[in-house]
Amino acid sequence: MTRLGYQIPNFTYPGVAPADLFSKVRQQAVEADTSGFDTVLVMDHFYQLASMGQPSANMIECYTLLSALAQHTSTARLSSLVTGNTYRNPTLLAKTVTALDLVSGGRAQLGIGAGWFEFEHDSLGFEFGTFTDRFEKLEESLQIVLPMLRGESPTLEGKWYQVREAMNNPAPLGRVPVMIGGGGERKTLRMVAQYADESNLICAAADIPRKFDALAEHCEKLGRDRSEIIVSYQTSACIAETREQAEAEFEAYLARTPEAETRRGTVIVGGPDEVAARFAELAETGIDGVTVNMTANGHIEGRVALLGQTLAPIFVR
After folding, report:
1. What CATH number labels 4-315?
2. 291 - beta bridge partners?
């Protein structure tokens, strides 16, 4: 499971044309794979998020991309962060994740969440529904996808999905770990306790202890050993050899992506020593790992490797 994950959430880089885009993404994945990251993750969206650019910015479908990256990496697990459940029928999702596992030599990981980007749903014709609808769908989906990934043939007559002895052959090469994304204390963390191997939190660092308490409470009610669940934390970084260089690259990113100004206070910016110190503070909260994106400068050769080398001593055990 994820102790040190590298997420690729944006595909718009200065001076990089669409024909050269994959090589730039591949570069990041290869650097992550060889510098200490144990997981490479790709955001599952079709439009860019408002905090990272315009909706029209480049986005690549995540499972096609992950399968391509599988051919250029050798050790890192490959996952979405996280799959929007509303975008795919659960049986299709099970087959897709299984295919990723096969082409990667057993390195697939299922990241999944209820789905939340209403504009994207409305524009592309995916049913959005209510908050309750989406979480009901997620739970039914987990009751289909997980058995299919475990070599079973589930039958479900649910409110949202109906399947009958759904087969999945060939099966994954091994046990596919399951990560549920989000920090909702009543619904999301209850599903983590019931179904998942990992919780990926998106919240203020100050809220982490409360999330731990909520997860522990759900585990106790369900009879689950809390220690079986890895908790990772999603964040962002901009690292360079010096703080001055990192700040310059971050400011250049904000200049070309003004929408990202809202993220200024949430990105860890600095040289290796400063970045290591900030992440060490995060580790002291009790989290087991982090998923880090580098939207500002991950496309610059060597930056992902520098981050991996800086953080691996903190999180890789």
Report:
1. 3.20.20.30
2. 5, 234
Residue 176 contacts residue 142 (beta carbons within 8 Å): no
Q: Can you give the residue ranges of every domain in the chain?
A: 4-315
What's phi and psi for 305, nearest 5 deg? Answer: -60, -40
Amino acid identity, position 65: L
Residue 177, token pair as written in the block: 């770990």
How far is it, in rounded angstroms, from Cα 25 to Cα 278?
A: 26
Pairing of strands 77-80, 108-113: parallel
Summarised one tens digit per residue, pLDDT across range 143-182 is 999 999 999 999 999 999 999 999 999 999 999 999 999 9
Asked if 111 contacts 100 with a C-beta cutoff of 8 angstroms, the reply is no
The predicted model scores a pTM of 0.96
- Alpha helices (H) in the chain, listed in sequence order: 18-33, 62-70, 90-103, 118-124, 131-149, 188-195, 208-222, 243-256, 272-283, 303-315
Pairwise CA distance, residues 147 & 149, whole Å: 5
